[in-house]
Amino acid sequence: MTSTANDIRLGADIGGTFTDIVVDVRGTIFSTKILTNYAAPEQAILDGIEIVVRDAGITLADLDIVIHGTTLATNALIERRGAKTTLVTTEGFRDVIEMRTENRFEQYDLNLKLPPPLIPREHRYTVKGRIGADGQELQPLDEAALDEIADSIAAGGFGAVAIGFIHSYMDPVHERRAREILARKLDIPISISAEVSPQMREFERFNTVCANAYVRPQMADYLVRLQVRLKEMGANCPVFMIHSGGGLISVETASEFPVRLVESGPAGGAIFAADVARRFDLASVVSYDMGGTTAKICLIEDHSPRTARTFEVARTYRFCKGSGMPISIPVIEMIEIGAGGGSIAWVDAMGRIQTGPESAGSEPGPACYGRGGSRPAITDADLVLGKLDPDNFAGGAIRLDTPASEQAITRDVGTRLSLDSVSAAFGICEVVDENMANAARVHAVENGKNISDNVMIAFGGAAPLHAARLCEKLGVEQCLVPQGAGVGSAIGFLKAPFGYEALASKLMRLSRFDASEVNALLDGLKTTAESFVRAGTDGAIIREITAFMRYAGQGWEIPVPLPDRAFKPGDEVGVKDAFRDNYARFFGRAIDGLDGLEIEIVTWSVKAQDVRPAPARHAITMGTRTVAASQTRGVFDPTTGTVQISAIIERADLSPGDRISGPAVIVERETSTVVTTLFDAVLQSDGSILLTRKGVQA
């Protein structure tokens, strides 16, 4: 198929609390939010689609493409609700996924508990056979033993198989042969690490293939159900999934490699923020996505989100790198914490207010939802502080129970700390805002950036409620709340390119640079990446070539962009210069003056994607027309520590250039933007709201 700007595109984002549906009918957006259905996630999508197509005046048959992102794979890993899975690995490497890297992520915790491996030891099988680090076969594969292992797996009632052999990224012949042998007797999905994550470092690679196998049956079943239900309702268009790297892939690819979907929803949000940054030509942006379950923060430079090759899910220690489950796939780099509207507030043994990571989700939801939830959540605190209108939440679809919020907050927080409900609610919001501010600072520092140098872009159902206060804490002077912010990730899906990143590890020192060998490797990666892109479009494709390089002896690499062309003898000089320039950019200076210090390439990457139309450019306006509100209500202001009479203004009633002086609340169907006393708000020409600190000029 060929994707065009005139397509009617529908995006569906399943979150932990809400499922967001957006349809773009040739430039006009229609959207809705539906509480996520845990028992049948596809049902919330179908219910939401019925609403938006009705509002848009179209039928499901008019849809040209459906783009879907989901947290189902992530939740299955976090909650350990995947298939019964076995790992077949090289003899002597059975315990790699349990031993991890032997690093202590919390050095002074004497009772440190490592996350348990996804596959218990009794479900792991080993087989003789060895590929060396140079790709040569050192020991033949024991095929007779594999035949016996297949019998054991069949008798064990397993639902999926993961195969991870040592050094298979150099030569996958043993893994592929093992899959052939096992498939003769097994009718269950088999994942091999050479296809899921062909990268160096066995712990990360083995864990990634285990995670892929673990969620594969569940995700494949879900995606089949979704496609069948859509066709039954009259939608004959193709369905594509957004993957963790921010591109679109076919449902068939997603079913085979579901681990690529682990960060699909947040990736859509980063693409949404990058599109806004491009629209206003903002070079340094921090995106802030706060939904019902988590908050995500991502740095966007020169209109592109930062990316990485590995990330962690299910961290057991907040902010502690190494305490989670490593997934070795291309991903948009961000920090994610359990701080959403549904995050539960509680008081710890030391009398401190804590929030999350446990979430009320959509079932039973915060106390104010009236769906059986009795514990106080962030949404309850926002309601008690006056940020939310109980009669106009989610466009009036959900009536909020303020007395229930007050009762829950008083019982679980206020009484323990001798605070009234308003003071306790303020304490809850201050804690969650401080947690998010700390996460943003950590993320910026880890990337060598100063967080206050960025413009914030806030979206997600809860982010506009907290954005101004977060800017106060971070020293950020301007924040954009785009149109459609409440369903920002789903809108981001519609702007995502058909794209795929193919990687392969092949250790090569620059002193032994072999241009023909490099070209052969890159040609294979280009073919792989473009084949996935061609599943969705036959339009023009652009490619990005990246080498991940280091000084010999270092433990990790840095990305070095390289030209997309065939290499020739002598090009290692240019590659070395590019590495030194990027190394200096990362660490302040390159390492010079050490005789014999080698530079080596560890991994190659080819990212291919189709060319997306550039958004219309807009200039920031500071506004001159002051708007007076016809409605007011009391909203607690964190700066003064008192309830302030605040203007209540419908976003739809504003015109570009209108300026609102805080305190105020700008309301719309999917969210509300709180303007604190330190900020003013100005409506931009594209419909975005600019929160700007009082006294700051354009």
From TrEMBL:
Protein name, per record: Hydantoinase/oxoprolinase family protein
Record-annotated Hydantoinase A/oxoprolinase domain positions: 205-497
Annotated organism of origin: Mesorhizobium cantuariense
Classification via Pfam families: Hydant_A_C, Hydant_A_N, Hydantoinase_A
UniProt cross-references to PANTHER family, sorted A to Z: 5-OXOPROLINASE RELATED, HYPOTHETICAL 5-OXOPROLINASE (EUROFUNG)-RELATED
Entry-linked InterPro entries: ACX-like_C, ATPase_NBD, Hydant_A_N, Hydantoinase_A, Oxoprolinase-like
Domain Acetophenone carboxylase-like C-terminal: 530-683
Sequence ranges assigned to domain Hydantoinase/oxoprolinase N-terminal in this UniProt record: 9-184
